[in-house]
């Protein structure tokens, strides 16, 4: 897991470095990209680009402000004459923390560098749009530079210079229900030339914990891959603060010479505080806060109250020994001995296939019962083994579930681990985003959700937690989405539902970095000029993006998308969704998109039965398309009054036709009988006429004789 975790960050940085090298080879002969329609204002001028209120110098790198794969460049704030700024260009394949950006932008928090603004910009390095963050440049340099001599901070000034500013940041972020998750020694800068206060750097350019070295992560979260470490809580930030104090106290990152797997092993076996101090000498004055903040039991870990008490010279809550219970005898997995439940859980996750036998035959259950005297875990392990015996035909899947559940039983607060997948429950979304954008696809995430592994994790949590309850409710929706494979659902719906700042990954508009629903139609308007005429403007990603970002309920439209063979309802559903977006968020004129939609409206026009009405609608479509209004196009084919009138006329016409056809049938089927009847009637009429003529003749003769 540790090697794979390192590969995640290496994948991102390697890609960025290769692209950077390619751009540098192009030199200044490469023209600046033209500004596209719908993008932020940007004018190329030599080697600089103006973005909003800032001028970014794309040839002036500032590596001291880099953040993982995100590269920093010199920038000028055009609205201020004093104070420098720098632009941090984010990696478009890694989601940013948009909620934290909105909170920090334009707000001054003592201890945090000022986030002046952020913009979505077309960046030549990536040949696509990405997020650029504009920070105020701190007045002092970096506090701890790897490989260089540290700028000395007097141990008696630690509280004022380091701890108080960072506490202020963590408290401000926690008050908004968020976490920082980027507190570490090499992300600290001096906020003034006199080095009297530190400020912490960027925390928005990547998922929570993504750029943190493993040693700064708690024992629970260090077992997750970097992209899946999750938002965590203020207790995770306080742990990172403790490790930061230790790093500054000893002058370098603790355990920096160890491999990641060795760091995991030593922290699991000895506890975080002992792992740090076993080979390092901390200043005496810092031992108490470091011990309190690095407590591996979250319930015992120091909070703000204990830190304030220590700063004020009062005795803080003593920290109990936090070393995990150690068994008298080891449990062996693949030739390695494990003495604690957590370390065994990690060993099982790294030896997936070889771990099955000792789990299935009850060896681990007996070790829990006898070696650790942990009857509760042993009982749950026995239940998991019994469930394996009830498995159906898919024995391999049941065995994988047993291993995953066993890991959770052994380490209930740790990451969900399933084969090569490792993420905290609150990091499932960012892990899915990373996998999808870096070639692994959604299968690992889908396997975890479909096999209902998170539900078992929730069941092993002790006590009530509002955060856990929210996560549990969100997970129920994810399982439903995964089980529905039609457009608007599947892993795409999960992705946009739990990663609120995820840009739309539809191939049609991915390079436009559409994060907000208001950006969707302008991006489609631009794409409409280049895409095939017979393609639909809504694919699975766009349908899911609209379903999660639009405030209107579109479940009816998604239901219609389940049956592409019904061209009428399918086309009407797509036009309806796009029209709703335009009605809510604009823009008013979308000529390219309207013409694109107009070409695809032929099936929807078939809803009318009247040929004259269809011809009238077909005649109106090009006129409305020129006006660029999707709402009018949709209303044209969805006019309820016209549709009811058309339906009524159609029913009437059907009835009239039926009556006429019946009369024709009667005439055609009763011909001989009618001829016989006509002959009889004719004979009767002739007889009656003859009788009348005879009477008239006799009467006339009689009168003549009398006269």
Task: Characterise the protein shown here.
β8 (188-190) and β9 form a beta hairpin. α3 (158-175) packs antiparallel against α4 (234-250), α22 (567-585) packs antiparallel against α26 (630-637) and α25 (611-627) packs antiparallel against α26. By secondary structure, the chain is of the alpha+beta class. A seven-stranded antiparallel sheet has the order 1-2-3-4-5-7-6, with no helix packed on it. A two-stranded antiparallel ribbon has the order 8-9. It is elongated and about 165 Å long. 50% of the residues lie in helices and 9% in strands.
| Strand fraction | 5-15%
Portion of residues in helices?
40-55%
Number of helices: 28
Structural class: alpha+beta
Any low-confidence stretches, pLDDT <50, length ≥5? Answer: 1-6, 15-46
| Morphology | elongated
**CA-atom Rg in angstroms:** 37 Å
Main sheet makeup: 7 strands, antiparallel
How do the strands of the widest beta sheet line up side by side?
1-2-3-4-5-7-6
Find the count of extended strands (DSSP E, 2+ residues): 13
InterPro entries: Kinase-like_dom_sf (IPR011009), Prot_kinase_dom (IPR000719)
Domain Protein kinase: 43-311
Biased composition (Basic and acidic residues): 1-12, 26-40
Protein name: Protein kinase domain-containing protein
């Amino acid at each position: 897991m540790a090697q794979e975790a390192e590969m995640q960050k290496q994948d991102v940085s390697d890609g960025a470095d290769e692209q950077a090298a390619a751009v540098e080879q192009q030199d200044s002969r490469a023209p600046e990209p033209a500004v596209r329609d719908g993008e932020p204002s940007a004018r190329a001028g030599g080697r600089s680009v103006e973005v909003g209120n800032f001028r970014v110098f794309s040839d002036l790198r500032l590596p001291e402000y880099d953040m993982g794969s995100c590269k920093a460049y010199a920038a000028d704030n055009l609205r201020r004459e004093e104070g420098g700024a720098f632009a941090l260009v984010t990696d478009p394949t890694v989601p940013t923390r948009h909620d934290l950006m909105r909170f920090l932008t334009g707000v001054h928090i003592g201890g945090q560098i000022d986030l002046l603004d952020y913009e979505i910009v077309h960046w030549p390095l990536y040949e696509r749009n990405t997020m650029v963050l504009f920070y105020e440049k701190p007045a002092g340099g970096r506090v701890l530079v790897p490989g260089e001599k540290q700028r000395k901070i007097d141990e008696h000034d630690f509280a004022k210079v380091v701890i108080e500013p960072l506490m202020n940041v963590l408290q401000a972020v926690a008050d908004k229900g968020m976490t920082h998750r980027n507190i570490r020694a090499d992300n600290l800068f001096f906020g003034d030339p006199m080095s009297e206060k530190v400020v912490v750097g960027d925390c928005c350019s990547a998922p929570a914990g993504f750029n943190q070295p493993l040693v700064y992560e708690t024992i629970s979260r260090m077992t997750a891959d970097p992209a899946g470490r999750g938002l965590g809580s203020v207790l995770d930030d306080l742990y990172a603060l403790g490790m930061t104090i230790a790093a500054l106290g000893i002058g370098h990152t603790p355990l920096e010479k160890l491999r990641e797997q060795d760091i995991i092993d030593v922290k699991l076996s000895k506890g975080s505080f002992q792992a740090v101090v076993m080979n390092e000498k901390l200043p005496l004055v810092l031992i108490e806060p470091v011990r309190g903040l690095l407590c591996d039991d979250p319930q015992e870990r120091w909070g703000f109250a204990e830190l304030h008490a220590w700063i004020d010279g009062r005795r803080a809550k003593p920290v109990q020994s936090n070393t995990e219970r150690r068994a008298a005898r080891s449990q062996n997995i693949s030739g390695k001995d494990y003495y604690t439940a957590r370390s065994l859980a990690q060993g099982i996750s790294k030896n997936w296939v070889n771990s099955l036998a000792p789990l299935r035959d009850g060896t681990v259950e007996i070790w829990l019962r006898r070696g650790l005297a942990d009857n509760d875990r042993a009982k749950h392990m026995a239940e998991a083994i019994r469930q394996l015996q009830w498995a159906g035909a898919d024995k391999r899947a049941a065995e994988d579930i047993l291993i995953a559940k066993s890991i959770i039983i052994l380490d209930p607060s740790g990451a969900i681990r399933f084969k090569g997948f490792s993420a905290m429950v609150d990091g499932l979304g960012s892990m899915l985003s990373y996998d999808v954008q870096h070639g692994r696809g959604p299968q690992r995430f889908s396997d975890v959700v479909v096999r209902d592994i998170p539900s078992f994790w929730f069941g092993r949590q002790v006590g009530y937690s509002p955060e856990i309850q929210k996560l549990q409710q969100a997970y129920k929706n994810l399982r439903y989405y995964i089980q529905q494979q039609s457009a608007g659902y599947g892993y795409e719906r999960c992705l946009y539902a739990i990663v609120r700042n995820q840009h739309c990954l539809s191939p049609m508009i991915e390079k436009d970095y559409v994060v907000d629903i208001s950006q969707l139609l302008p991006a489609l308007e631009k794409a409409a000029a280049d895409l095939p005429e017979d393609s639909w403007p809504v694919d699975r990603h766009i349908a899911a993006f609209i379903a999660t970002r639009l405030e209107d309920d579109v479940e009816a439209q998604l239901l219609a998308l389940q049956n592409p063979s019904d061209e009428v309802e399918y086309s009407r559903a797509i036009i309806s969704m796009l029209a709703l977006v335009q009605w809510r968020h604009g823009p008013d004129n979308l000529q390219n998109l309207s013409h694109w939609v107009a070409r695809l409206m032929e099936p929807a026009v078939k809803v009318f039965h009247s040929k004259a009405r269809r011809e009238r609608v077909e005649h109106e479509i090009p006129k409305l398309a020129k006006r660029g209004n999707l709402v009018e196009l949709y209303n044209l084919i969805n006019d309820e009054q016209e549709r009811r009138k058309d339906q009524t006329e159609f029913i009437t016409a059907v009835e009239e036709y039926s009556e006429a056809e019946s009369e024709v049938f009667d005439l055609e089927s009763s011909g001989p009988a009618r001829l016989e009847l006509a002959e009889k009637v004719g004979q009767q009429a002739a007889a009656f006429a003859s009788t009348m003529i005879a009477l008239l003749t006799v009467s006339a003769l009689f009168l003549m004789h009398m006269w």
